[in-house]
């Protein structure tokens, strides 16, 4: 009994401390960070939104997406992102990876199908389709593709938009990031920014 | 630059950042846990909260405070989850179901942060900030406080079981360590691209005329403490793989550093608290050796990309983000399972079989490489006591650690500590794999299905929180089972640690003599590493054989 009473006494002290912690760490801290973030890095803090012409914006009604978030591509003349397992694809309300294991027969089948499909679409041998093109990303909204996946899409995109392959390849190069500081992460191409640039040069 | 060289440089950059920061933060932590002086703000807080900061608590009182505070935390968060739709900034989401609210309350209070729900589809901004993230701070502070109390217990002599004041430890850890460091990390994260706002969900029209929801929120502030406090609960379902939480390779390295810095610094602080820096160095070295092995194996496994699907695709990129690739995902995975964090920047279920096995083994070791904030240090010190005991048996002497005799009483406590998590994991796995409701949650069968279940119970009992996320755990069965495992896996060991701290604080310090086993030499680091691998690791070999090992060989 005395132990229970002691626990109650300690719990009451705990409740007072918890309320104080909630005010300090749960409200003051995030709100101060929000204030500073909005004042100093407003565009980033609001989600790195870009307009149809590639301008930065804070207004989601003007934006065509976030430079950080991959989206579905419904235009056969543009670059395709990686496969997505988020909801029905690129669903930011249901971000998800496939969570299929390395020996999963469904995954093996999916990879085979994607390889065939992409090879046919881009007119390249199956062996040239890179790994990121046939595997679902972790988030389902990966904004990037590998330079190798961009490279095999150049010829199709050039044809579809009345551009030379060199011009499209130059756009790809312009939107390729190397490893950060030369050694962190992997080289990558931002698909949304690249597609915006392609549309800007499109010959109608 | 070749991918291998880049991977090595990435690891070296992390080592350099840790080498620069750990001594500084370690010294700061030691001061926080030993200084008799209070800041003016702290004194005011103690008065307002009606706690006596000068009371030197007996270990029982200290444990009562820990349990009382955590009990209130669970009740508060449970109520928050159940009532979220009545509060502002709820995002229009329903209340959490009762089994889910229980699971989440326990999960965040125990520093586990297992998530059965999907952040963007279940939790509004208010509960994320004022419910979940508050526990990110205080559950981390509780872990650090208990570790500090244990270190003080070892440092004291004939002190009648008194090991310090929990409320002072808690308040100081939060105010002097977690808040300032988390604040700095949060600002850097936003500057690098993480989002931080209070906007509701907004539908956008995409470039090709589709629609996509913009899901903002107070993300960076939560991300910072989530990694620093080795919590791991993501704002979004895919955690640190989400570009709004972890936008680029630089933030990725920053987050890995944040995961590792406090556990390593605590080992440094330990040496200062017991007034023998070499002892802290030995503990830190053991942690570093184990982590290095884990990082090396995981990086090798992912970059080699063995297995049917990775071989067919050409690389193990399923469940990985392009910007991170294999190496940065492997490094994150080793850090998150070597600690009690459980944040992920890639899907662990899609790791190669040996890679997933290393992640699982890191948790099974009890997360001591370098472990959770606080829990990593006391977990390693428990193994240090086992090591001196085993060596004592070999030469037929009464063992001692830092001049404290280790007799039957102490060993009983250590044995309870060492056995608690394996029992929870193996019994939990047995229940999950025999109950129809347990099997119903698994996404696949065979060895990979077994790994999925084993990973879930291991993650819960060790307070990690990462998952083979194909599992459907938002059911009453899994929520209840994992909630119980998290609760027992956190507080049974913690009470044992405090009891042992009390015994050490009461004891005399024996002077070193010719028969004393030095606990600061490389020999001891080797012995301790061996004990960690043998005593703890072997417990799980049969289970690992049936899961990841069979899968690797198939």
Question: Could you please describe the fold and organization of this structure?
Answer:
The complex is a heterodimer of chains A (204) and B (554). By secondary structure, chain A is mostly helical. Chain A folds into two domains: 2-40; 47-201, no CATH class. Helices cover 50% and strands 8% of the residues of chain A. Chain A contains seven helices and six strands; from the N terminus they run H-H-E-E-E-H-H-E-H-H-E-E-H. Chain A has a three-stranded antiparallel sheet, with no helix packed on it. Chain A has a three-stranded antiparallel sheet with strand order 4-6-5. In chain A, a hairpin with a 4-residue loop joins strand 1 (49-51) and strand 2. The longest helix of chain A is centred in the N-terminal third of the chain and has 39 residues, at 2-40. The N and C termini of chain A lie far apart (84 Å). The mean pLDDT of chain A is 96. By secondary structure, chain B is mainly alpha-helical. Chain B has one domain (3-203, 214-553). In chain B, the strands form three sheets. Chain B has a two-stranded antiparallel ribbon with strand order 1-2. Chain B has a two-stranded antiparallel ribbon with strand order 3-4. In chain B, helix 4 packs parallel to helix 18, helix 7 packs across helix 8 and helix 13 (353-364) runs parallel beside helix 17 (446-461). The longest helix of chain B is centred in the first third of the chain and has 32 residues, at 3-34. The mean pLDDT of chain B is 95. Classes of the chains: A mainly alpha (204), B mainly alpha (554). At the A-B interface, helix 1, strand 3, helix 3, helix 4 and strand 4 of A face helix 1, helix 2, helix 3, helix 6 and helix 7 of B.
């Amino acid at each position: 009994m005395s132990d229970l009473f002691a626990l109650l006494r300690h719990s009451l002290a705990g409740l007072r401390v918890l309320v104080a912690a909630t005010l300090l760490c749960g409200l003051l801290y995030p709100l101060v960070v929000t204030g500073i973030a909005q004042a100093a890095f407003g565009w980033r803090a609001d989600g790195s939104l870009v307009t149809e012409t590639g301008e930065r914006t804070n207004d989601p009604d003007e934006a065509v997406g976030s430079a950080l978030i991959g989206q579905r591509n419904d235009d056969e003349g543009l670059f395709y992102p990686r496969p997505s397992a988020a909801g029905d694809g690129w669903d930011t309300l249901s971000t998800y990876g496939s969570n299929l294991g390395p020996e999963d027969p469904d995954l093996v089948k999916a990879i085979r199908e994607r390889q065939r499909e992409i090879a046919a679409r881009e007119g390249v041998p199956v062996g040239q389709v890179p790994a990121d093109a046939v595997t679902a990303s972790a988030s389902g909204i990966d904004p990037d593709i590998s330079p190798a996946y961009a490279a095999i899409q150049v010829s199709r995109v050039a044809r579809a938009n009345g551009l030379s392959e060199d011009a499209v390849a130059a756009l790809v190069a312009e939107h390729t990031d190397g490893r950060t500081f030369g050694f962190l992460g992997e080289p990558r191409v931002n698909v949304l920014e690249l597609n915006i640039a392609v549309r800007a040069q499109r010959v109608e | 630059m070749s991918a291998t060289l880049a991977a090595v440089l990435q690891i070296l950059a992390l080592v350099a950042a840790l080498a620069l920061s750990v001594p500084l933060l370690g010294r700061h932590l030691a001061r926080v846990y030993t200084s008799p002086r209070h800041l003016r703000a702290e004194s005011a807080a103690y008065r307002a909260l009606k706690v006596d900061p000068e009371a030197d608590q007996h270990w029982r009182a200290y444990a009562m405070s820990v349990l009382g505070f955590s009990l209130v935390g669970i009740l508060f968060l449970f109520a928050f989850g159940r009532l979220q739709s009545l509060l502002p900034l709820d995002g229009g989401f329903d209340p959490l179901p009762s089994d889910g609210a229980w699971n989440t309350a326990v999960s965040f209070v125990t520093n586990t942060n297992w998530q059965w729900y999907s952040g963007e589809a279940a939790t509004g901004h208010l509960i994320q900030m004022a419910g979940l993230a508050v526990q990110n701070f205080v559950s981390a502070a509780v872990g650090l406080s208990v570790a500090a109390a244990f270190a003080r217990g070892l440092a004291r002599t004939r002190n009648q079981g008194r090991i310090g004041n929990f409320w002072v430890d808690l308040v100081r850890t939060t105010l002097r360590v977690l808040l300032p460091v988390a604040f700095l990390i949060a600002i850097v994260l936003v500057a690098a691209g993480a989002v931080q706002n209070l906007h509701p969900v907004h539908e956008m029209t995409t470039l090709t005329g589709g629609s996509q929801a913009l899901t903002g929120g107070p993300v960076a502030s939560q991300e910072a403490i989530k990694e620093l406090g080795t919590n791991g609960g993501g704002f979004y379902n895919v955690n640190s793989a989400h570009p709004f939480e972890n936008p680029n390779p630089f933030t990725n390295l920053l987050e890995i550093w944040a995961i590792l810095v406090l556990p390593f610094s605590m080992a440094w602080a330990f040496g200062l608290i017991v007034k023998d820096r070499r002892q802290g160095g030995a503990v830190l070295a053991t942690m570093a050796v184990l982590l290095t092995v884990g990082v090396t194996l995981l990086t090798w496994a992912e970059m080699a990309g063995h297995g049917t699907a990775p071989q067919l695709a050409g690389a193990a990129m399923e469940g990985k983000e392009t910007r991170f690739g294999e190496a940065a995902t492997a490094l994150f995975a080793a850090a998150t399972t070597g600690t009690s964090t459980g944040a992920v920047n890639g899907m662990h279920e899609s790791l190669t079989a040996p890679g997933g096995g290393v992640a699982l083994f890191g948790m099974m070791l009890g997360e001591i490489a370098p472990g959770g904030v606080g829990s990593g240090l006391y977990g390693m010190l428990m193994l240090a006591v086992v090591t001196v005991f085993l060596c004592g048996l070999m030469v037929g002497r009464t063992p001692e650690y830092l001049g404290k005799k280790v007799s039957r009483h102490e060993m009983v406590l250590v044995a309870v500590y060492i056995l608690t998590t394996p029992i929870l994991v193996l019994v939990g796995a047995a229940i999950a794999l025999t109950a129809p409701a347990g099997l119903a949650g698994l996404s696949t069968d065979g060895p990979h299905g077994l790994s999925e279940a084993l990973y879930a119970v291991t993650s819960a009992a060790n307070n990690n929180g990462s998952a083979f996320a194909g599992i459907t755990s938002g059911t009453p069965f899994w929520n209840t089972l994992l909630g119980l495992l998290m609760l027992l896996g956190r507080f049974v060991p913690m009470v044992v640690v405090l009891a042992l701290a009390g015994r050490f604080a009461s004891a005399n310090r024996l002077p070193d003599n010719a028969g004393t086993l030095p606990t600061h030499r490389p020999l001891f680091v080797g012995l301790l590493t061996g004990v960690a691998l043998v005593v703890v690791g072997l417990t799980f070999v049969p289970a690992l054989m049936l899961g990841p090992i069979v899968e690797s060989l198939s």
